[in-house]
UniProtKB/TrEMBL annotation:
GO cellular component, one term: cytoplasm
GO molecular function terms noted in the UniProt entry: metal ion binding; phosphatase activity
Record InterPro entries: HAD-like_sf, HAD-SF_hydro_IIIA, HAD_sf, Heptose_bisP_phosphatase, Histidinol-phos
Biological processes annotated in GO: carbohydrate metabolic process
Residues that bind substrate: 11-13, 19-23, 54-57, 111-112, 143
Protein name per the record: D,D-heptose 1,7-bisphosphate phosphatase
Residues annotated as the enzyme's active site: D11 (nucleophile), D13 (proton donor)
Lineage of the species this protein comes from: Bacteria, Pseudomonadati, Chlorobiota, Chlorobiia, Chlorobiales
């Protein structure tokens, strides 16, 4: 027996937590964006599973370690849990095309805008007997690559104006999100749960 679920796929840096302009490698560098925890809690209460999808090429570049990235992800979940908004799954891609690495190059198909992490999440849910309804699921991020990833994976893509705010680049390249929100809270309240 399988259950059908809807998923809110979320970029991390610049969408849930402040983008520091560099890689977030330590706990003190991780600051939640205002009302982000509340937004995720509302989505969870409405029945969405929460999945983080994050490019973390700082690993291949030697700027951050796997241990640091995983510790920051753990800390993010601690902060979200305080807001009643813990995530269900979290995936990150360590590779970078300009920084070949013998250990991480095999993850190249995961780096957004590629959809490897989304497909992996959907397969992992499937292994638990949960079928993801893509048409009822969303991908929210602050960059062009997030919108592209959402589109390629047949999810509803939403761009947020926090972080890098690539609204102008998206428009110029004709990569059109379904909705543009000032922040994650607005994305959830004004569009997803409207
Ligand atoms: Mg981002």
């Amino acid at each position: 027996m399988t259950e059908t679920i809807k998923v809110l796929f979320l970029d991390r840096d610049g969408t849930i937590n402040e983008d520091t302009g560099s890689y977030v490698a330590t706990r003190p560098q991780l600051k939640l964006i205002a009302r982000a925890g509340e937004a995720v809690a509302l989505a969870k209460a409405a029945g969405f599973r929460i999945v983080i999808i994050s490019n973390q090429a700082g690993i291949a570049r030697g700027i951050a370690t796997v241990e640091q990235v995983e510790d920051v992800n753990l800390y993010l979940n601690e902060l979200l849990t305080e807001a009643g908004a813990s995530f269900d799954r979290c995936y990150y891609c360590p590779s970078h095309p300009q920084h070949p690495h013998p250990e991480y190059d095999r993850f190249a198909g995961c780096r957004k805008p590629e959809t490897g992490m989304v497909e992996r999440a959907i397969a992992d849910f499937k292994a638990e007997g949960l079928t993801v309804d893509r048409d009822a699921s969303f991908f929210i991020g602050d960059k062009l690559i997030d919108v592209e990833c959402g589109l390629r994976a047949s999810l509803h893509p939403i761009l947020v104006r926090t972080g890098h705010n690539e609204e102008e680049i998206c428009r110029r390249l004709g990569v059109v999100p379904e909705f543009v929100a000032d922040d994650l809270y607005e994305a959830v309240t004004a569009h997803i749960l409207r």
